[in-house]
Design brief:
With 174 residues, the protein is mainly alpha-helical. The chain contains six helices and three strands. Helices cover 42% and strands 5% of the residues. A hairpin with a 5-residue loop joins strand 2 and strand 3. The longest helix has 28 residues.
């Protein structure tokens, strides 16, 4: 066995990831084991970086499918280069920026009406009178991108009978 290969136990110790989690990641295709004649798993040293990236990406809030997509762009069989990592970094940066914008919007709307239909805040009488945001579907409509004026009629009134077009509706109420 070449010394450049690691047993699953060694990979676990080097990454801090449990053996069972490494097997899970292997099943998902994040890493690929080389099998010995005795059918034992051996991993390349480059898999330390691949698994470390998966851990970091999870901490940043990326979903496993997003991590799989990014790792699929890296070469199997060799250590990724700086250029490889920079390409992934650009993709992740865009995803993180979208999450930051959503968090900032949530922060800014947290003390006011988010269009949830609760009608429990005095301020909601101004922003979501008669729960007009419910026309856009279930959930926090303003946080999802709707604006109070999206639910006003052409004359500025808030008629309850007006319906939001299906293209504006993200989900319909049950």
């Amino acid at each position: 066995m070449p010394s450049s290969l690691l047993s699953i136990g060694d990979l676990s110790r080097r990454t801090g990831i449990s053996v069972s989690a490494i097997r899970f990641y292997e099943a998902r295709g994040l890493v690929q084991a080389i099998r010995t004649r005795g059918n034992q798993r051996r991993f390349m040293r480059a898999d330390i970086r691949r698994l470390s990236f998966a851990l970091i990406a999870q901490q940043l809030g990326l979903k496993l499918t997003e991590i799989e997509t990014e790792l699929a762009t890296l070469p199997q069989g060799r250590t990724p280069t700086r250029r490889d990592w920079q390409a992934i970094s650009r993709q992740i940066r865009a995803a993180l920026q979208a999450k930051i914008e959503m968090l900032e919007k949530t922060r800014d709307l947290l003390d006011g009406c988010i269009g949830c239909g609760c009608l429990s805040l005095d301020k909601c009488a101004l922003y979501n009178r008669d729960d007009r945001a419910a026309r856009g579907g279930a959930g926090p409509r303003f946080l999802l991108g709707d604006r109070p004026q999206d639910f006003d009629d052409a004359d500025g009134s808030t008629s309850r009978s007006r319906r939001v077009s299906p293209s504006r509706r993200q989900r319909s109420r049950p």
